[in-house]
DNA sequence: TTGAAAGCGCTACCAC
DNA sequence: GTGGTAGCGCTTTCAA
């Protein structure tokens, strides 16, 4: 096709451009026998147009397959009909799910989605904050798990467009999130209720990005342990917040039977699943030797029979768009925080503590303590 | 805003727009003591401007933090400085990797990325092809594993913008891909060289989307088997092309020792890893009882010691952008096909066939044959 | 209810 | 080298 155009492009080009040229709103107006303004009104649904003209204009538009030029519309109205989405990763379950939720409602609304992949510590991230966002090629912004630093936050505010954060813990923008502290606490309490005492927390620490979320979940774990009088049993296994990260850290931490926790609270399902795979590899039976609980309800959770606290990032994405659109309609609305609920899904990775295992664990602890 | 504007916004509007107005190129020009045209030339880098004026203009621009209006620029130049990316999934390793590769070079080039998530069989996909793409909010398009049907392909061509496909098998657009047939053949040959005869292929079939890629890989497997005189040993285990899909199908297929293949070629690493997890679950030792080879070199491959044929989707994404930009520079270029190489990565999921296992397998086959 | 005309902010052509 | 000026394609007053 392109090859063909090689020989006689001049003509092809000219012709094709002529076709495009001619199919503007002016042509629609001409065909319908009205003025540009009337055509615009008829098409846009704004202002008074007689039903008859409206139909005539619409037919004319349809007949030439009229599609308004987005840049012309944007220039004239100040609206881009486009939403920007900034996130640090797109290759992790949570982020991909949120993105799909966002995309889904944006498509239904006829709005475009411009993606900014702001991976922490990259040159690309700098450029996004320095150059890309300033272009304001969007009517509003959704920031997913961004955790911007001070400077970045300033930039964000400076663009002067409505922003909704998903997992943002921001007091300046509207936020959609779950109560991380509370969720981690419930996860820990589930284990405590099963009789576990030597419960470790795995996650956060190696990676810098999830710091805030991880910190809150760690706090939830610590609070639950403290409340149960188990502060002495607290243990934090540092791990990258990825499946292989959880695997690697768990392989290290679960190697010897002595001192091994009887249960693990993972900062998210990916880490939990990594830990389960590690346990299997080490011959540690889940859940009889080791209980594991996660947070997410990841798409792999079912396959690993993982007990977890379900969150629905896709829904969070949908809600984020909704809030953003509301704000676009009425910019006077103050920022709000929407807390999504989360539900315990019990599968088969957690079980009541085996008395013998307990004895070993307690023994291990004693030895460690002495 | 809209509500407000009805009552008395006139003022608010005017004021706020005035502020925006003032930081346009006209203001830059005024500050630099030159005309708008000169300012434009100085900023755009096009046309003759004395070094001195250029500096003065740039300073003026910097002093007020001038950022050109993208819609105005687009309208005037016909260029959007934006690239559209259409893909059916964003939550699968391959697609996420390609997307990151694309984003990476786009960011470096100062180009925006508009994402269209065209999940097969959804209303959203229809809207993308019917409405969104027709808006041409982009200078070019990258289609990743899209496998459009006839009608969709027509739409694609109709938008009249350059297109590059990643995994597209298209004769109308430029394509970046690996040689799926060849890669699957090499995977199969690796197993044959290790002495395996009962080699099954797992993948494709349940899902419709990957049909073409899967078909090509299946063909590669079939060809290798045929060449080795093993056509009688051919077996296709149908599986969804996901990790849980591979797991579920493998659990079904590997249940009984009799008739169990001694080796598996998976259509991709996700399926391969699913199969490995299933094998472990069933007490089938990998690689002593079962060899598994994949295609991808997925981020989990190392953790499962998976032997695989590496492909680098991120690089494919980068190359796709490069090709697109070249085409944008010189639209007369005919479409081409770029084949990325792929390399065998031997880890520990494949091993030479154990004579005893072979006997059992052959026995099983015999029984099946009678 | 409709049409004329004035921009939206920028580029690019054409004189100077 | 530089400065007018005419659009890019659409929306939106303002009059009619």
TrEMBL record, chains A, B:
Leader sequence segment: none
Sequence ranges assigned to domain HTH lacI-type in this UniProt record: 23-77
SUPFAM superfamilies, alphabetized: lambda repressor-like DNA-binding domains, Periplasmic binding protein-like I
PANTHER family, per database record: LACI-RELATED TRANSCRIPTIONAL REPRESSOR (PTHR30146), LACTOSE OPERON REPRESSOR (PTHR30146:SF153)
Lineage of origin: Bacteria, Bacillati, Actinomycetota, Actinomycetes, Micrococcales
InterPro entries, per the entry: HTH_LacI, LacI/GalR-like_sensor, Lambda_DNA-bd_dom_sf, Peripla_BP_I
Record's keyword annotation contains Magnesium: no
Protein name: LacI family DNA-binding transcriptional regulator
Gene3D superfamilies, alphabetized: 3.40.50.2300, lambda repressor-like DNA-binding domains
Keyword field: DNA-binding, Transcription, Transcription regulation
CDD domains on file: HTH_LacI, PBP1_LacI_sugar_binding-like
GO MF terms, alphabetically ordered: DNA binding
Transcription regulation found in the keyword field: yes
